[in-house]
Amino acid sequence: MSSVAELDLPVVFKYHVIACFTKRPPGHPRGSCMESGAQPLWEHLQKKVEAQRLTDVCVTASGCLSFCRAGPLMVVYPEGVWYHPETVDDIDEIVDRHFGAGEPVERLIIVPKV
Amino acid sequence: MSSVAELDLPVVFKYHVIACFTKRPPGHPRGSCMESGAQPLWEHLQKKVEAQRLTDVCVTASGCLSFCRAGPLMVVYPEGVWYHPETVDDIDEIVDRHFGAGEPVERLIIVPKV
After folding, report:
1. Which domains does chain B have, with CATH numbers?
2. Half-sphere exposure of B54 (CA within 13 A, CB side)
3. Which InterPro entries does this UniProt record tie to the protein (chains A, B) (predicted)?
4. pTM summary value
5. What mean pLDDT comes out for the span A25-44?
6. Nearest CA among A80, A73, A90 for reference residue A22
């Protein structure tokens, strides 16, 4: 039997961002990240990562991440940090500090309750 | 400045599966996970995780994971293990061994080239 450490896998991306693009109709009781204003944030994120040629950062659009009331929601792996950004400035800070300097942006981190 | 270790975040899920649901038209030069037969595999995965009440496993549908030729593709975090399953038996093995016993299924792991 092999453990992950024994497999000694190379790291495919330094950071893998999972950003929720779920859209539910206005007034839906669960809400959704798109209804919470996620669209311009994720567009800004994708453009910024591309413009800065951060080839070690992968941004993947996703379906529901389960904690709809906390949206907009994105997760960054391998750390497993869940972010709730609200503005494009928040996105800039995550890109510059977390992806650029390796320092998670504590004020934007949330811990969803399972 | 805070490191992730200093933040001491609780783990939201024990395993977070990102499974690619991208569908491109037949004959598209990039191909896609849906064209590679992913649909019944991910449906089986979702049903099995639900049936076994694995509440510490989150399965998130995603857009393109960048390595379309290697589809069907799913990633499991926090390990960052990339799997290329081809049958529902492969899915059963990942659920039983990786999520159940904590042992990644080495024969189904691939390492995409960036």
Report:
1. 12-99 (3.40.30.10)
2. 23
3. Thioredoxin-like_sf
4. 0.92
5. 95
6. A73
